[in-house]
Amino acid sequence: MPVAIITGASRGLGRALAEALAARGWDLVLDARGAGPLREAAEAVEGRGVRVAALPGDVTDPGHRAGLVAAARRLGGADLVVSNASALGAEPLVRLGELPLDGLRRALEVNVVAALGLVQEALPLLRRSPAGTVIAVSSDAAVEAYGTWGGYGASKAALDQLAAVLGAEEPALRVWAVDPGDMATELYAAAVPGDDGPRPAPAEVVPAFLRLLDERPASGRYAAPALAVGR
What we know:
Blueprint: E1 3-6, H1 12-23, E2 27-32, H2 35-46, E3 52-56, H3 62-75, E4 80-83, H4 101-128, E5 133-137, H5 150-169, E6 174-179, H6 186-191, H7 202-215, E7 220-223, H8 224-228
Parallel strand pairs: 1-2, 1-4, 2-3, 4-5, 5-6, 6-7
Helix pairs in contact: 1-2, 1-7, 3-4, 4-5
């Protein structure tokens, strides 16, 4: 069975993607900081009859990242790494003039440095896979100037660039930065409290990610709403 490592898998898009891959028979290595919610997510996907390794921890910890890759190795390898764990930098979001620099550092550490660190750790396994793939979960804030989203958007823009260069340096892999669009998630609620406008649930966005895995287009940046057209 193929094996995926998914960070930030206890809720939102990470959990929805884990459930969708489990339904397709993928074995999974799941990460999140909260042990309880991660355990619940793991039990939900184990019901699909797949093997699941759930490791609570912080992706900024090199030892934790090594543990995730070691768990994938025990399951047979790593065919897919999904960097989904994200930090906002401030909750709720604030203008750049008020953004705590420690918050910006945290966003960069989680969204960029840890994502690259996990890929570096997993590269030997990804290179051995016949379909080695990296998905970096991006944001439209990486390419659009939205007030209060500057720190988070800057981190996602940096992640996009890392994904683009990795795709050029590793032509045998597929490396996709994927903008899922607006979703009804706890992360968004923390970013903009009180904004309860209609947004799709993460499970409604997952088919766009599955389309990428099915069709395996060239490495690059993709937007989930565009991928959903015609599906």
